[in-house]
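4.2 Preliminary Data

To establish feasibility before requesting continued support, the project team ran the inverse folding procedure on a target of 306 residues. The structure was first converted into the token representation described in Section 3, and no sequence information of any kind was made available to the design step. The complete token record follows.
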């Protein structure tokens, strides 16, 4: 028995059939109802749409019951899943444990399968806690029993330096290659970038010594042919000479062997009080350089930043 459509219902169904913006499934249901209204048989509809007989019966019954409103989708779907505090605690606790399959870290899907929850909930819990299991950082553990005291002293120089004192962070860059291109540099031109020759001539290496004034940001630098203890002592002398007399000078350096030689110790002993022969000194060196040290102290630390 053919369906009976009103003029408005037929116009709406034909609009859905012609539309390029609605869902394909909505247009498919409209085609089935129009073909039923035109008296087409189930076999013809099954071959034209195409679809199964149960599909035709389902939407015919729904259209007869609610007319056009019956063609709306009625998916029950899944009940909404909420990330409860208990579930979030389980996710975080399991994340801090090693995966049982021997892999290096958890993924959202792997942990979701283990806990039988959706992987999006795992990702949500990780974002809330700031966890990123795929990332890791390196650190270096000091074997110095007084490391915390020394580190606090160095950090204090950065955060709260002594009044009327100069604080320098000293470091070296060794084996800098002095290169010279064999071929001339070709300048840029329309549609072409600047070009450098591939081959070069190596003129040996240089070492760079630099001291950063932590207060002003000024950098004092010096290049030397080789990185030796004598070159470091000479650089310290230039650093002292650049400061006014009787000013405390704090130098923060790493734990390199050239910073702990006898020549460096002798230099520090000669500069107690800021200059040879000066009287005032106010020091708290984390690492003793031997004997008494002067205002030019070497605050050494094993802490490193990658």
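Position-by-position output of the design step:
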């Amino acid at each position: 028995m053919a369906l009976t459509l009103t003029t408005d219902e037929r116009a709406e169904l034909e609009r859905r059939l012609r539309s390029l913006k609605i869902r394909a499934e909505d247009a498919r249901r409209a085609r089935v109802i129009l073909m039923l209204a035109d008296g087409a048989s189930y076999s013809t509809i099954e071959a034209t749409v195409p679809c199964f007989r149960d599909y035709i019966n389902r939407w015919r019954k729904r259209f007869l019951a609610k007319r056009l409103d019956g063609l709306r989708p009625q998916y029950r779907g899944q009940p909404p899943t909420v990330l409860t505090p208990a579930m979030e605690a389980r996710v975080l606790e399991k994340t801090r444990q090693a995966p049982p399959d021997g892999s290096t870290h958890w993924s959202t899907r792997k942990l979701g399968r283990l806990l039988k929850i959706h992987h999006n909930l795992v990702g949500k819990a990780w974002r809330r806690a700031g966890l990123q299991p795929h990332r890791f950082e390196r650190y270096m553990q000091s074997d110095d029993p007084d490391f915390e005291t020394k580190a606090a002293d160095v950090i204090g120089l950065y955060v709260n330096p002594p009044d009327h004192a100069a604080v320098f962070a000293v470091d070296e860059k060794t084996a800098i290659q002095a290169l010279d291109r064999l071929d001339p540099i070709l300048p840029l031109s329309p549609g072409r970038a600047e070009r450098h020759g591939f081959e070069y001539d190596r003129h040996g290496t240089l070492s760079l010594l630099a001291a950063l004034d932590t207060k002003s940001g000024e950098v004092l630098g010096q290049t030397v042919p080789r990185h030796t203890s004598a070159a470091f002592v000479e650089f310290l002398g230039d650093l002292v000479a650049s400061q006014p007399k009787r000013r405390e000078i704090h130098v923060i350096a790493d734990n390199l062997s050239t910073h702990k030689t006898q020549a460096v110790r002798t230099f520090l002993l000669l500069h107690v009080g800021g200059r040879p022969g000066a009287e005032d000194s106010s020091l708290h060196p984390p690492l003793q350089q031997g004997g008494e040290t002067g205002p030019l102290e070497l605050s050494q630390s094993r802490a490193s930043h990658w």
